[in-house]
Amino acid sequence: MLYSTRWLATIFPNNEGKISDNQIIESVSIDSRNIEGRTLFVPIVGENFNGHDFVEDAITKGAIAFFWDKSYDLPVNIPNDVAIFYVNDTIDALQLLAKEHRKKINPFVVGITGSNGKTTTKDIVTAVINTSFKTYGTKGNFNNHIGLPLTIVNMPTNTEVLVLEMGMNDFGEIEQLSRLAEPDIGIIVNIGESHIEFLKSREGIAKAKLEIVSGLKEDGYLIVDGDEPLLQHLHEKPCTITCGYEQNNDVVISNVNQKSLTETTFQLTSGEKYTLPLVGTHNVLNASFAIAIGKRLKIKPKTIQQGLNNLQLTSMRMEFSQGQNGVTIINDAYNASPTSMRAAINIVKQLDEYSTKVLVLGDILELGDYGEQFHKDVAKTINRPISAVITYGELSQIISNHVAASSDMIETEHFTEADQLIDHLQQYLNEDTVILFKASRSMYFENLVKAIQ
How does pLDDT run across 17-30, given as a tens digit for each residue? Predict the structure, then answer.
């Protein structure tokens, strides 16, 4: 049970249909295809669709209530036992419902933003906190002005800690999400290059990420990457926890040791040692944020480690799997920025178990005028022991061209047809080879992964 239509009527007084304490909403959905059970349907209007066209379908599948934009004509055959809430804008209504539901449940809220690594950090934070509290959080990447409130309105009534991911494309968006969430703790994972096309500079990106403090509670804490030069001014701020590898941080990471393909050990300032079922120094930093929160919530180190042991990552984030002929595949195809691509390449370099290390890289999008330079910067990261670089798309050819010009020890190929790329990969499919797949989301690199699994 989330709430009754009677309670909804106290927020949205312009209504009709079945308004009752016994008319219970169990879920909220914006997609009529995903409705199961007693659902509040929120019809969203987009550029190429109008959710109001699917209200009748939603009712057929189990919706017992829905928002309705007053500017549209209501269908004549709506059943009498369905509650209708008339609103000026359905997205605004969803956001208002999120605010009211959050206030009613009053969980401890963690808000997470950053250029990349938000979802992985959210997964780690959730794993740690879930050891000791009833925890609910963002599913997948529901992190925008629709996805974040949708997460909140589906929060179970027994939730003690709410973990929310906050994404953005432009200024003002994180501020809006922060004011919706009112976090007790905000995390800025990093300042990268994502969306630099709109924000013009890394300084602009930092300014946009810092909007997370807009809704931060008065006694709230901000946790940041203390090694980031653009966040150095926060070191002296009260109620700020800095994490990183440099000695001036509140939480200093040391003695990092990659124990295997999927395990890293490290130590923090207090002397505690932890094991993380991930590789990469950036993931250790992400884990330090989660540990800092765990300690704020008085979770013991032993219990924090239990949470790390039970970590379940959202798909296509450094997923290791076996492909054809025993080849090892690293599926990091969910998205890409220059920072995250360089980090993934550096992980592959450290995999001494393989004699052949292959990079399959695609375009990094939303870089605007910086696209050429940032792809060149990625190429500068690539040297031996990388064995081969295979690029696919348009901008990514800058990477393979640069590598080809700077090293005759690394094989390079560029493709514009997926089938040709897959055929070329056949020569690398053996148990001595690891292949990384990394590109922006719209390149759909998961299709290349499936082709060799």
Answer: 999 999 999 999 99
Domains of the chain as residue ranges with CATH:
3-88 (3.40.1390.10), 106-309 (3.40.1190.10), 319-452 (3.90.190.20)
Closest CA relative to residue 124, chosen from 259, 301, 278, 321: 278
Angstrom distance (rounded) from CA 416 to CA 372? 18
Q: Is the pLDDT of residue 297 over 80?
A: yes
**Assigned token pair, 28:** 């909220």
CB 64 within 8 A of CB 25: yes
- For residue 312, CA distances in Å to 54, 109, 278 come to 34, 20, 11
**Residue 440 exposure: Cα atoms within 13 Å on the Cβ side:** 17
Amino acid letter for position 396: S
pLDDT at residue 411 in the model: 97
**Residue 148 phi, psi dihedral angles, 5° rounding:** -65, -50
CA distance 308 to 291: 9
CA 416 to centroid of chain Cα atoms:
28
Handedness of CA 188, 302, 106, 86 (dihedral sign): positive
Task: Judge whether 241 and 221 are in contact, CB under 8 Å.
Answer: yes
- DSSP H helices in 163-265: 173-181, 196-199, 202-209
DSSP helix/strand/coil, 246: coil
Rounded CA separation 396/1 (Å): 49
State the amino acid at position 56 in one-letter form. Answer: E
**Sequence-ordered strand ranges (E) for 48-124:** 63-69, 83-87, 108-113
Which tokens sit at 212?
A: 């997370």
> In 3D, which of 289, 250, 287, 257 has the Cα closest to residue 110?
289
- DSSP code of residue 51: G
Q: In the 8-state DSSP scheme, what is residue 342?
A: H
Cα–Cα distance between 13 and 7 in angstroms, integer?
Answer: 10
- Summarised one tens digit per residue, pLDDT across range 330-351 is 999 988 999 999 999 999 999 9
